[in-house]
Amino acid sequence: MNVSVEGLSTDITGLDVFTIYDITVAANTLCGPSEKVNVSGVTGQTPPTSPLNLRVVATLPLAVVLEWDPPSDPNGAPLRYMVGSGSFFLVLVQSML
């Protein structure tokens, strides 16, 4: 993608979530372009998609054991899963790393 900009800043839109981009900028006059300068930037995070394949793998007298697969689109740095019952979450468990 090449964009011509007249001012000293621009927005680059349509990028993917939580992705590193290497961006190059050069000044240009009637005599031609300057040498390029580079910078890297990371786009922001959004909430992940839901965990996949939630299943009960064991039942005990006073507990159940759950397993699941990670979300197909984490959309950011993984931190933890929230497990709950009813309308509230009971506990924060397990790193998503």
For this entry, give a set of tags:
mainly beta; rod-shaped
Radius of gyration: 23 Å
Strand coverage percent: 35-45%
Mean of the pLDDT scores?
86
Major beta sheet, specifics?
2 strands, antiparallel
Helix content: under 10%
Low-confidence stretches: none
Separation of termini? 33 Å
What are the secondary-structure elements, in order, as H or E? EEEEEEEE
Helices and strands: which structural class?
Answer: mainly beta
Strands in their spatial order, largest beta sheet:
1-4
**What is the number of helices?**
0
Per DSSP E runs of 2 or more residues, the count of β-strands stands at 8
Identify the overall geometry: rod-shaped
What does this structure look like?
By secondary structure, this protein is mainly beta. The chain has a domain at 52-93. 0% of the residues lie in helices and 44% in strands. It has no helices and eight strands. The chain has strands spanning 20-25, 28-29, 32-33, 37-42, 52-60, 63-69, 81-85, 88-93. The strands form four sheets. A two-stranded antiparallel sheet has the order 1-4.
SSE blueprint:
Layout: E1 20-25, E2 28-29, E3 32-33, E4 37-42, E5 52-60, E6 63-69, E7 81-85, E8 88-93
Antiparallel strand pairs: 1-4, 2-3, 5-6, 7-8
